Amino acid sequence: MTRPDGSDPMAHEAFADALAACAVDALDDAAARAALEVHLASCPECRAELEALRRATTAIGLGLAPEAPPPDLRARTLARATAQPQSQAQVGAAAQVPAQTPARTPPRTPPSEAAGGSSLAPSRRAPTRLPWLVAAAAALLAVAASIYVVLLQREVGALRTLADLTTSRVESLRGELVDLRRQSAELAEIEAVIGAPDVRQAALGAAGASGEASVRAYWSPTQGLVLRARSMPALDAGRVYQLWMVPRAGTPVSAGLLTVQPDGSSSHVTHLPAMEAAAVAITVEPAGGSPGPTSAPVMVGNFN
Predict the structure, then answer these.
(1) Labelling 179: which of 123, 129, 143, 203 has CA 20 to 30 A away?
(2) Is residue 139 helix, strand or coil?
(3) CA distances, 24 to each of 27, 54, 73, 102, 200 (Å)
(4) How far is C-alpha 225 from the geometric centre of its chain's CA atoms?
(5) Per-residue pLDDT in tens (0 to 9) along the chain, 304 residues
(6) Contact by Cβ (8 Å): 283, 242
(7) What gap in Å lies between CA 113 and CA 120, rounded to an integer?
(8) How far apart (Å, rounded) are the C-alpha atoms in residues 80 and 14?
(9) What are the respective helix, strand and coil percentages of the chain, to the nearest 5?
């Protein structure tokens, strides 16, 4: 159906969306833009409508009061919407209806500007948690450092204890080594005396009575004297056993004090000047010994 002026309303309806998009420079489809340009070249009505839409868009963008559209724009828009031609009377009636200018809505004022502040001022934000996180991290670091110090102190204490134990063990081993060396030297001396070609032996017994003690002496004029004893009776405090070499002529010569172990055993090695010893005797003397016998021998033995 055509209008009285010969225009096709369906053709105008087909370009309505394109006109609106073109008015705001939003018609990106090249084919649609080309078709619209062809239609505008032969349709003065659509050209006028496009200009009206552009003026209204420009007025809105500049914040001015919108211009009233052409009187017949409303009628033509309704006709396109209903796809029905409007009579000239209806067009005239529509033209007589005053266009209502919508009230301008004042722009919204940001809260900061409404309060009298500048729009460029930064908005207030919620307090950040960063200071609390830093404080918590510092507290955790302090606790970790304290724990590390305690553990380090414990480790140092353990190392010191281990060092003390090691030192004590070293000292003990050193003492044992000294004893072993002494025993080794003593054994070497004993071996030298017992293995000497001129060695002589004497079995000592309790003088005048039988006893449980067993004592044997080895005498080499060139190597020295060796005495080995077992089951020696314990003495009172302040008393010691003293060993004497009895020559064939003359007074007895001290061969030293005997050290008796708790089990009654004793081992004694000594070097004496060369002499013609006939016997060996043991007396009980005051602590420290005597230069000469002060009591009768408790044990005596002759060298064979």
Answers:
(1) 203
(2) helix
(3) 8, 7, 18, 20, 141
(4) 69
(5) 445 555 565 666 778 888 888 877 778 888 888 988 998 998 998 899 888 888 877 766 555 455 566 666 666 655 665 554 444 444 444 444 444 444 454 545 444 444 444 333 344 444 566 777 778 888 888 888 989 898 999 999 999 999 999 998 898 999 999 989 988 888 898 999 999 999 999 999 876 544 678 999 999 999 999 999 999 999 999 999 999 999 988 899 999 999 999 999 999 999 888 888 999 999 999 999 999 999 999 999 999 8
(6) yes
(7) 9
(8) 9
(9) 45, 20, 40
Nearest to 298 by CA among 221, 232, 220, 222: 232
User: Longest Cα pair distance anywhere in the chain, in angstroms?
Assistant: 181
The residue type of 159 is L
Q: Measured at the alpha carbon of residue 155, what is the angle toward residues 152 and 158, in degrees to the nearest 5?
A: 150
Residue 148: CA count within 13 A, CB half-sphere: 6
| Strands laid side by side in the 214-220 sheet | 253-258, 239-247, 277-286, 299-302, 200-206, 214-220, 224-230, 266-270
Distance CA 51, CA 34 (A): 18
Backbone torsion region of residue 154, taken as left when φ is above 0, otherwise alpha when ψ lies between -120 and 50, otherwise beta: alpha
Q: What is 151-212 written as a DSSP string?
A: HHHHHHHHHHHHHHHHHHHHHHHHHHHHHHHHHHHHHHHHHHHHT-TT-EEEEEEETTS--S
Closest CA to 211 of 203, 202, 219: 203
Q: Which two tokens stand for residue 195?
A: 């293995």
* Residue that the structure tokens 């394109």 belong to: 18
pTM of the entire structure? 0.45
DSSP string, 209-240: S--S-EEEEEEETTTEEEEEEESPPP--TTEE
Task: With beta carbons less than 8 A apart as the criterion, state whether 72 and 95 touch.
Answer: yes
Residue with tokens 């948690």: 129
